[in-house]
Every structure is written in structure tokens, then in C-alpha cells.
């Protein structure tokens, strides 16, 4: 058996074609799913009212839905918090009328719902903990700004990596981040969760986390590529990833443990944010190894064909 090279035990680049194919397939499936299924936007982006209610004793979702459906609300929906004591009731705003008229109708709907809850579930002592309302125009503007924030984030990262390292690193980094964000969004929608402003903030956060992991690998590649230039780009990338592997595992493991604990013990928006971070951390760690660096190697070979040794 051939003696293992000094760059480490794992030949990551040798398996990059297999894992890159899996990644491309996952991204394609995610895009198709999001296009067909559509994103379940929260009231932050589509407009509407959200009422959070807590009961002292259990109330089934069917009992609550029966009451809500009889209140004349527009497209009502109910979401539980993991137990049968706390729920979020959502409904859209009236579609016609002036802003003043819509606000007045919405206020009447909230008061009617509040009264019905107190009357129907008097023994369970309903407590209205939060009431949030967002107009449809504001929601559309927030959705537009959300898309723009992700686009500008990726654009600035593309420019930053090009200036910080070299142009050959930029496409791999951006594709890596796009890969993480799309797959995370698809999984988030697949499990039936809504996408709202806090969740979008979590996706932007995981983009930053994944970028940090990618930059660590890129920085190590740049540090050693001059020393091992005669060994070829495959050797350099494998050596860089193996040298940073322990750091990557410790960092990812720590943050993943924290996010998992939040997901298990928290409720509501905090649990949704933690769930998004869990997915993003896992795929971010994977993509920094099997997407970013190998794509950089492929990009360099295609653009500078013949200038970089390809042997290992």
C-alpha cells in the first residue's frame, strides 16, 4: 500500500467529485421544491395579524380551530408551541378599504377573538401574550428588502474574497454560501415552518458562519501554496483542510451543540432560529470542505490551464 502523504489521513479532494455531485443534486432539488411548493412566509412578509395565547390547562388545536373558524377572520391559521397550552393564531387583514377602515376592522377582529377565547375557555384562563399586525404593503416591502439583503450580502462577499485573497477564491466561496442558504431554506419549508424576519436573520447569520469557516481554509491554502507549489493544488488543498480539520470540528461541534440545546428547550421564534442554525452549521461545515475549496481548484484549472501543476 502506498505510504500516506504528510498532509494527513483524509484525501478530501479525491472524493470531491462525488460529494460535489451530491451537493449539486441537493441544490437542484431544493430549488425545484421551493419553486413548486413555495415559501411559507410569515406575517412579516405577507401582512396580517398574529395573536399569541397561553392557557393554564390544555386546549386541543381542534377545539381552538373550531372557535377561530367561527369568528369571520380572513384565512385563519393556528400553530402550536410544542405543547397543548400555547398557540399562535394568524389571520390576514381585510383586502379592501382605506388604511383607517382596515385598521378599525382589524381592531374589531382582535377584540372579538379575545372575547370569544375568554368566553369559550374561561376555565383554562386564556392569556393574550402578544398581538402583532403588519400591513400588506409593509410586508411586501420587507420581503423585497429581504431578497435584496441576501443578494447584496453575497455580492459584497464576492468582492471581499476577491480583494482579500484572489479572484480564483471568490466563486467557490459564493457558491458555497448559496448552497448552504438554499438547502437550509428548503428543509425549513419542508418541515412546515414559516419564514419571517428572525428566520431570515438566522439565514444571514449562517452565511456569515459558513464564510468564516471557508476563509479559515482559504487562508491556510494561501499560506502554504508557495511552499508546496511544486506538489500541486490537490496536495495543497488536502493539506490545508487536514490541518484545519480539528479546529473545524471543535468549532462546528460547539456551535451545533448550543443551537441544538436552544431548539430542544426553547419555544416559538427562538426554536425556529435555532433549527435554521442547526441545518446551516451542518451544511456550512460540509460545504467549506467539499464545495468551496474543490470548486476553487476547478476554477483555477479552467482559467489558468497549464499554469498550475495538477499532480499530487
Give structural notes.
- With 312 residues, this protein is an alpha+beta fold.
- It folds into 2 domains: 13-42 and 139-303, Multidrug efflux transporter AcrB transmembrane fold, CATH 1.20.1640.10; 48-134, 2-Layer Sandwich (Alpha-Beta Plaits), CATH 3.30.70.3400.
- The chain has helices at 16-37, 43-46, 61-69, 99-120, 136-164, 170-190, 197-225, 233-265, 268-303, and strands at 48-54, 74-80, 86-92, 127-134.
- Strand 2 and strand 3 (86-92) form a beta hairpin.
Strand neighbour order, sheet with most strands = 2-3-1-4
- Uncertain ranges: 1-8, 306-312
Instruction: State the order of secondary-structure elements, H for helix, E for strand.
Output: HHEHEEHEHHHHH
- Count of helix runs: 9
The oligomeric state is: single chain
Give the total of domains: 2
Shape: elongated
| Strand segment tally | 4
Estimate the mean pLDDT confidence.
81
Give the CATH architecture of the largest domain: Up-down Bundle
**Rg calc:** 25 Å
CATH superfamily annotation of the largest domain: Multidrug efflux transporter AcrB transmembrane domain
SS strand fraction: 5-15%
Q: What percent of residues adopt helix (DSSP H or I)?
A: 55-70%
Q: What is the CATH class designation of the largest domain?
A: Mainly Alpha
- Class of secondary structure makeup: alpha+beta
Main beta sheet, described? 4 strands, antiparallel
Taking the alpha carbons of the first and last residues, their distance comes to: 16 Å
What is the fold-level CATH name, i.e. the topology of the largest domain?
Multidrug efflux transporter AcrB transmembrane fold
Amino acid at each position: 500500500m502506498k505510504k500516506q502523504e504528510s498532509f494527513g489521513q483524509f484525501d478530501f479532494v479525491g472524493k470531491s467529485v462525488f460529494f460535489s455531485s451530491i451537493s449539486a443534486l441537493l441544490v437542484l432539488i431544493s430549488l425545484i421544491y421551493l419553486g413548486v411548493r413555495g415559501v411559507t412566509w410569515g406575517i412579516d412578509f405577507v401582512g396580517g395579524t398574529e395573536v399569541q395565547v397561553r392557557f393554564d390547562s390544555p386546549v386541543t388545536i381542534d377545539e381552538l380551530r373550531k372557535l377561530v373558524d367561527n369568528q369571520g377572520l380572513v384565512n385563519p391559521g393556528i400553530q402550536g408551541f410544542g405543547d397543548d397550552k400555547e398557540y399562535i393564531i394568524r389571520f390576514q387583514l381585510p383586502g379592501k378599504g382605506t388604511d383607517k377602515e382596515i385598521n378599525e376592522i382589524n381592531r374589531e377582529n382582535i377584540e372579538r377573538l379575545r372575547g370569544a377565547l375568554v368566553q369559550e375557555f374561561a376555565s383554562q384562563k386564556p392569556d393574550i401574550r402578544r398581538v402583532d399586525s403588519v400591513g400588506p404593503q409593509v410586508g411586501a416591502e420587507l420581503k423585497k428588502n429581504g431578497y435584496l439583503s441576501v443578494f447584496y450580502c453575497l455580492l459584497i462577499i464576492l468582492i471581499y474574497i476577491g480583494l482579500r485573497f484572489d479572484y480564483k477564491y471568490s466563486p467557490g466561496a459564493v457558491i458555497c454560501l448559496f448552497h448552504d442558504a438554499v438547502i437550509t431554506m428548503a428543509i425549513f419549508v419542508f418541515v412546515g415552518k414559516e419564514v419571517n424576519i428572525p428566520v431570515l436573520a438566522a439565514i444571514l447569520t449562517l452565511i456569515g458562519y459558513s464564510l468564516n469557516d471557508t476563509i479559515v481554509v482559504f487562508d491556510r491554502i494561501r499560506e502554504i501554496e508557495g511552499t508546496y507549489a511544486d506538489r500541486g493544488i490537490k496536495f495543497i488543498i488536502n493539506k490545508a483542510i487536514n490541518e484545519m480539520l480539528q479546529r473545524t470540528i471543535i468549532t462546528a461541534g460547539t456551535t451545533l451543540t448550543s443551537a441544538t440545546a436552544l431548539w430542544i428547550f426553547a419555544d416559538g421564534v427562538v426554536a425556529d432560529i435555532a433549527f435554521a442554525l442547526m441545518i446551516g452549521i451542518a451544511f456550512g461545515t460540509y460545504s467549506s470542505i467539499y464545495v468551496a475549496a474543490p470548486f476553487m481548484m476547478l476554477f483555477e484549472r479552467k482559467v489558468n490551464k497549464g499554469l498550475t501543476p495538477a499532480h499530487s
